[in-house]
Amino acid sequence: MRFTFPKAEHLCLKNDVAALFETGTAFVSFPYRVVVRKVEKDTVPAKILIISQKKKLKKAVWRVHLRRQIREAYRLNKAPLFEFLSEQNYSVHIAFMSVDSKLTDQKFMQEKMTLTIKKIINKLREV
To answer: Helix, strand, coil shares of the chain as percentages rounded to 5?
Structure first.
């Protein structure tokens, strides 16, 4: 598997984002709040949205840095999720939001992303 994050994997459409927050399943896996929604099979197994809150991080530079950290952690750890979804007859939309009010190092973010992706797979198996 290639460790890329192409434009096709970005969740961009307003209708998709609105549906994700209206009907998606939410849970917290510190430092992330995750919202997951199953959708019909698409060209890519998963589309994601990354949000950093102005309420938590006041400076735009910090919010951009946090989004880059989350994107990098997801990019490097998405393989198990894609393997699981390749066996399923649906795709997923996922929103990652930071609940932490401070920046942390990349190693911590990657460890937590690994655990979060395992939780996402378990949630998808339950439903």
So the answer is: 45, 25, 30
With b meaning 16 or more CB within 10 Å and e meaning fewer, what string describes 15-39? eebeebeeebeeeebebbbbbbbee
pTM: 0.91
Q: Pairing between strand 90-98 and 46-51?
A: parallel
Q: Please check whether residue 16 is in contact with residue 47, taking contact to mean a CB–CB distance below 8 angstroms.
A: yes
Let me know the angle formed at the C-alpha of 15 by 12 and 17, rounded to the nearest 5 degrees.
55
Residues 62-120 pLDDT 10s: 999 999 999 999 999 999 999 999 999 999 999 999 998 888 899 999 999 999 999 99
